[in-house]
Amino acid sequence: MPSSAIHAINFDPARSELTITFATGRIYVYAKVPEFTFHRFARSESKGRFFNAEIRDKYRFRELTESPEDQDCGFVSSFREALQRKQKPDSES
Question: How high is the pLDDT of residue 59?
Fold first, then answer.
């Protein structure tokens, strides 16, 4: 069943890692997830409800993507470069 919150789920049985791609584009890898939990997740009627009840806050995880707040889309770095150029003495320009 499609989910409005979860775009895709994948499982690596050799590593017992569950990878979840959220609708926001963020990707998280959850460690030491039992394979039967993945199968239950895949068959669940509501992926979001299952995630909140059975996975969230129950397994260690790492994020593979940067949040939009962490990405400056070039604006911050361009601003920093402009400030650095302005602060250089005229002879260095």
Answer: 98
